[in-house]
Structures are given as C-alpha cells and as structure tokens.
Design brief:
This protein is an alpha+beta fold and about 290 residues long. It contains six helices and 18 strands. Strands 1, 2, 3, 4, 8, 9 and 10 form a seven-stranded mixed sheet that branches. Strands 12-18-14-15 form a four-stranded mixed sheet, with no helix packed on it.
Length: about 290
C-alpha cells in the first residue's frame, strides 16, 4: 500500500517555448540530483534547459493537444491553471496557439511533491506554489496530509471542476478517498467538466464528435478513442473495445488499461465499454475507477 510520503523538490515552473495544458507544466529543479531518490528515476530525462514535463497526481484535464486532437474545455483548463500559477500576458504561436511565445513572469517558484516517474519519464507530482509549501523542505521526504493536499493545485483543479479525478493504484488510499470527495462535491454542483460530461454515453462517429465542438468525455477515454479512430481510418474493422483488445496483445502499446472498480474487482478498460452502433457507454462511475499503474 502506497504511503503518503512524497519527496519535496524546489524549482520553478516555465512556459515560454513550451506547450502547457490543464494538468501539466514544465518544471526546472533547483537541485536535479534529488530526482535520483524517486522510483524509476532512470526514466527522467531533462531537456536542454533542465526542464521536465510533470504529470499531475490524481487529475486529468481535458486535452488541449493530443497530437492534433483536442477536447472541449481544453483551452479553458490550461488558461485557468496558468492564471492560478501566476502567469499573465501570455502570447501563443499560431496557428494552433498552444506554444507559449511570451509570458509574465518568465518563471514561477514552486515545489513538486513526488514519489516516482511514470513510463514516459514524467515525475508524478502534486504541485504547490512556493508560498504554500511549508513545512516542505527541498530534498526532504514530506508527509502529505489532508491540509497539505488541499493546498495543492491538484486539489484545486478538482474542487473547481477544471479536471477529472484520475487516480492510480500508486496513489495512497487516503489521498484517493479525499480527491474523490473533492470531485464528488464539484460534480454535485455541476462545476466545470461535470456540466457537460458525456462519458456515460456518447456518440463516436469521428474525431469531430469528441473534438472541441463535440462531446466531452474522460480524457483517458478520449485518448483511447482518438487512437482507435486513427486505426479505423487505417482499415481496422471493429469497435473501440475490439481495438483495445487487439492492442492489449502488443507489449509495446497496450492501451487496454487494467482498472479496479467496485472496491476491488480488477478488469480491463475494454470490459467497461458497451457499444451499440454509434453509441459508446462507459459502464462505471468515473469516481469509482482506479487505474493500475504500469
């Protein structure tokens, strides 16, 4: 069982020349050697400027740029996160306006709280602005209790409905429960994503049907559906669940996630999908799903 102790790493958040979105920004550690204490530290490969892409613990915001694909509220989620961090006067490069060309200030001091890097080398992190980080100390393992968790931007994203909850088996059980509570309260108020969420039943015709002017679904499900549509355009015969089953046989590209539902039943993502003609139904409460960390 995961323990609620996280390594505090001080640094700064940067956006110029980057493509931030609603649940991830780039971070430059003041002492990058601290990364060596994290599980799977060998996966972390900072870019030339020393920055790494973060994966926010426990949340998943609508996609702004999954390749060329995007979701409803993706731009709004990014703009809200960057405003909370303290960036302003942002300019973006055309045509897609996802890459930042200028911002005020150029960087913002912050702490990340992390235990491990995920498969793509991103530290899985809670994010705290520097003034909210006490009593965390750079390079020290820190107990992330409920008061500290509530000060993270991760928690705020859920409280305001800017992002969906997406927890993993690596997330401490107590954190999962509290993040679920925050998301439940947001859903009851129909805040943000919950006002238009269509994950329980959506029409999957083409990319436009789940694109910026289409239906909003859980981002992880959106990414799987987007990859499926590309495969279908390439000649794949079958529905979304069929495609997930096919790629699950590939050790290099298994997108048929293992998930735990109903307090302990382990299934695959494909088991939770029911498709009738054009309509796909996700047969689990989004707040009850725990993804198994790869």
């Amino acid at each position: 069982m995961a323990a609620p102790y996280y390594l505090a790493i001080r640094g700064r958040l940067v956006v110029v020349g980057k493509e931030p979105d609603g649940d991830s920004v780039r971070f430059i550690a003041e002492h990058p050697e601290h990364y060596r204490q994290l599980k799977n530290a060998h996966r972390i490969d900072p870019s030339a400027d020393g920055s790494v892409q973060l994966r926010f613990e426990g949340v998943d915001a609508p996609e702004l740029h999954y390749g060329s694909a995007a979701q409803p509220l993706g731009r709004e989620a990014r703009d809200q996160l960057l405003a909370w961090i303290g960036f302003s006067d942002l300019d973006y490069a055309p045509p897609g306006e996802t890459r930042v060309t200028s911002a005020t200030p150029e960087s913002v001091p912050a702490f990340i709280l992390s235990q491990a890097a995920e498969v793509n080398g991103r530290p899985v992190s809670y994010l705290l602005l520097e003034e909210q980080a006490a009593p965390a100390q750079d390079g020290a393992w820190t107990l992330v209790d409920r008061p500290m968790l509530d000060r993270t931007l991760n928690a705020r994203l859920l409280q305001e409905g800017v992002a969906y909850p997406t927890v993993y088996s690596s997330t401490p059980v107590g954190h999962r429960a509290h993040l679920r509570t925050l998301a439940t309260e947001a859903r009851e108020k129909a805040a943000g994503v919950w006002a238009i969420d269509a994950s329980a039943g959506f029409v999957l015709d083409d990319q436009a049907s789940i694109g910026p002017e289409g239906q909003l679904i859980l981002p992880k499900l959106f990414r799987r559906a987007t990859d499926y549509l590309r495969a279908r355009d390439g000649g794949f015969q079958g529905n979304l669940a069929d495609w997930l089953l096919q790629v699950s046989a590939s050790p290099s590209r298994n997108e048929n996630d293992q998930v735990v539902v109903c307090g302990g039943i382990e299934v695959h993502l494909s088991d939770l999908l029911l498709q009738a003609n054009r309509t796909v139904r996700f047969q689990a409460d989004l707040l009850d799903v725990v993804f198994v960390e790869k």
